[in-house]
Amino acid sequence: MTAIASLRGVERIYAERLKALGPFDLDIREGEFVSLLGPSGCGKSTALRLIAGLLEPSAGEVLWPHGKPPIGFVFQDPTLMPWATARDNVRLPLDLLRVPREEADRRAHAALERVGLAGFETDYPRTLSGGMRMRVSLARALVARPKLLLMDEPFAALDEMTRQDLNDDLIRLWRDDGLTIVFVTHSVTESTYLSMRTVVMTPRPGRIAADISLARTPAPDPAYRFAPEFAANASKVSAALRDGMKAAA
Amino acid sequence: MTRALRYVLPFALGLAVLAAWEFLVRAYAVPQFVLPGPSAILSALIADFASLMASLWTTLRITVLAFVLAAVSGIALAILFSQSRILEMMLYPYAVVLQVTPVVAIAPLIIIWVGFERINVALLILAWIVAFFPILANTTLGLRSTDHNLIDLFRLHGASKGQLLWRLKLPSALPFILSGMKTSGGLALIGTVVAEYGAGSGTATGLAWRIIEAGNRLQIPRMFAALILLAGLGIAIFYGLAFLEYLLLRKWHESALPEER
Lengths: 249, 261
Fold this sequence. Notes:
The complex is a heterodimer.
Chain A: E1 3-14, E2 18-29, E3 33-37, H1 44-52, E4 59-63, E5 71-74, H2 86-96, H3 101-114, H4 130-143, E6 148-152, H5 160-177, E7 180-185, H6 188-194, E8 197-201, E9 208-213, H7 228-248
Parallel strand pairs in A: 3-7, 3-8, 5-6, 6-7
Antiparallel strand pairs in A: 1-2, 1-4, 8-9
Helix pairs in contact in A: 2-3, 2-4, 3-4, 6-7
Chain B: H1 3-27, H2 38-47, H3 49-83, H4 85-100, H5 103-114, H6 119-144, H7 148-156, H8 161-199, H9 207-216, H10 220-249
Helix pairs in contact in B: 2-10, 3-4, 3-6, 3-8, 3-9, 4-6, 5-6, 5-8, 6-8, 8-9, 8-10, 9-10
């Protein structure tokens, strides 16, 4: 598989003193679902923002061998515009691209349908539950048909069942759209369940402690959560996380 | 508590107070130049209705115009500040100077500069000075309080500066702007009245002038009548703006929504 993005010796230093990240080398390959896993404050979000181009690296570079693809970004909070309906929120990326109104409405409707929110087009965020807001946020990230989807602990604030549902929906979307997903999380079980590759990071300044490939069929599989190989994979990831923290201490 | 009670209760209290007032004034034969009863005030209001309404119109016109000018200039300047930090650093202190200097103190100067023959322009400037700052300050704060993640999202999708302003910053500043406008509405009226006082007798014809005139002639019922019109105007402005706020925010903002189900 070819790399869609390559981070080469990337570092990020805040306020000229605090080193948050790096040096960090990572190839993100086309079509893979990769999790960035690490303790709080290890620079996972920083890495994601560097990939998105929302931050500039203090050193090193982010390379796009085939040009920078369209990117979708999902934040930790739903980050919706409270004054806009679900449809208008989803339409935003299209509006910014000046897609004609009718087409934008149609695509926003389709995107909402895909995340299970058909019929909620005219609801305001305030009237939706936390899980539904996150679904709107996901629909907004997908509506402009990104190649690369960057997700920053998107489900961390949701209850367990909602989170499991969204995990399965995400896997389905990943498969159907042929997306490349970089998923930041601090949950071992979530990264193990979701991704075919987990990049374990050390505490600040974040470096790569381990790069673990997991056998994962690209399909939602609730039974996998309780399978012995899930436990084996999770403990492998967990051990790598502990080693990374020990090495840094 | 029923909805009707919310309106009935204050109204009943008002009536009771008026009745007691009328009764006490009559029972103790309080002279009208000390405290006129409600009936005397009402007759003064009816007798001088034409001139009082003309004065109300004068005051209202200047107040509304000053408020609109304050809203437009306050929002425009805040937008400029949000686009240029340097401009904000340069100009903000002067906006504060304008705000902290008592309008009574500047009134004579402005009136002399503008001239008595254009007294309404002078009043307008003075009322604008008073009303302008809350809108500037609140809009500036509102524009700066935009969710940073949303700004990032707009940037990620290649939003232009204009799109960022119109689609994100202004809508998210709207509750702040409206709150500033509610403060400014009342201040525009206060500014107009204070300026009318500053302008003194013979030139201005607003409600403040009616109050001075009635005071000079010891026509206290007439003075009360003018006061009541002034208070009513203030209340109308406040609730008018509160209603505008409700209309604009009712669908999405926490402040306008019923409590959690």
